[in-house]
Amino acid sequence: MAAASEFGAFQLARRTLRAPIPHELRGDLGMAVLVLALFLLQVFTGILLSLYYQPSPETVAESMQFIMRDVSWGWLLRGLHHWVSTGLILVCCAHLARALVGARYRGREWFWYLGACILPLVVALSFTGELLVWDNQAYWTVREFLGDVETIPAVGPELADIVRGGSDVNASTLSRVWTAHALFAPWLVWMLLTANLALIVRDVRRAWGSKP
User: Fold this and answer.
1) Which positions of the chain have pLDDT values less than 50?
2) With DSSP H G I counted as helix, E B as strand and the rest as coil, what are the percentages for the chain, rounded to 5?
3) Do the domain assignments include residue 19?
């Protein structure tokens, strides 16, 4: 094992962990890693919940009750998924606020643009997740939301029909909410988070290279 650590991935990991992080980049790197860790925790708990969740109006309530009542530690998984979602939003807001107050976006516009894209996607993930309960409140929330979408000039009615999957809120709507929550939005967030972290690591490496 000692010999193997002298080359390849072992050497790269050892050098990265032992290298000093420039003071001005420690906060950015720490916040980026925290956001990524919370997101991965969301993915992990979401995968476990998806093993039992059934995205159908006829079975969704029963599947939610099954998770909370019959699945071992199902109540904990659902609670963790819910509260980590809230925490992820708060950390993303703090990350952006730190960049705004400290004017850290100057000369690093990518930092601000990526954060400005990640936050609404994380909020959308939380919003669609709340709708997956598909109870009476979720149903009317969807109807009210799509009613607001329809007021968008030119494209509003067509966009609302796409989200609904037709002219009325039904099983197709739930299926599309599930797809957005479980497949589409998470991949977008993942790509943006990894891009954000990669660019911060690039700045760290540049800072290392600039030192004598």
Assistant:
1) 1-6, 212
2) 80, 0, 20
3) no
